[in-house]
# Entry
Amino acid sequence: MADDGAYPGLHLPIKRPDLHIALALGGGGARGLSHILVLEAFDDLGVKPTVMAGTSIGALIGAAYASGLSGAEIRDHVMKLFGDRRELARKVMQTRSGKFIDLFQSGINGSVMIDPVRLLAQLLPSGVALDFKDLEIPFTAVATDFWSRAEARMSDGPLITAIGASIAIPSVLKPVIRDGRVLIDGGAANPLPFDLFDRSVDICVAVDVTGGPVRKDKAKHPAPGPFEAMFGTLQIMMTSIVNEKLKGRHPDILIRPDVDRFKVLDFLKAGQILKAAEPIKDETKRRLERLLEAA
# Structure
């Protein structure tokens, strides 16, 4: 997706308050930490989205940005959070049963179930709004209504339960009960919610981190273990949904970081993920700058 040529840089931030810019951040587990690079690109250009939507990890990071945190502040929090394993373990221990390390290894067992709302209360950075009405940027979080078998869009009320529902990965995070509905990970219904925006937006930017299972040794064809098979299947499903959506409608800018090699729960590799995704920062700036100038 990257354009040819080096990003020339800008002498002054671009200010276009007259433009309606929409930003959709997709689901994909730890790979979604690469969303931070796109937020930093917006900050470097001096541009803010006028409306946002997020699914799963995209809902979590998107809500922090819509609350007023900068991309750099979110990056600092992530690196501090996942850089201190002992403190992270202490926080997670308060929200689950089972062993902490089981969350990040393929041998996960059925006893490890996390309450996503309690987890967010431990892990979210200070400054994240408590309610949608307190956000600086209008934002919609996407979850999946389990019994209705349809996406659930949330844009009002308590923010933390909406994020918790959106990130509720089956078998790892407990479903969230909100407004009488049983809600699970939004990736099951809408992994990349750029279609939430109507056609009145001037520029639509979408960041797809669904990815898929990657074989480390292409010369071999080992069968995946139960844990890898489960998450790999979810990734394949989400990628298929996104690809079908793109046949009918396409965002103005579609960003796909090169982070497929990372697994859904590779949050302890946050630094590696951000480094691998670094090229999308300049890519986003180049492409967004061109559309802003053309507009």
Notes: The first strand starts at residue 21 and ends at 25. The CA atoms of residues 215 and 222 lie 9 Å apart. The two ends are 21 Å apart (CA to CA).
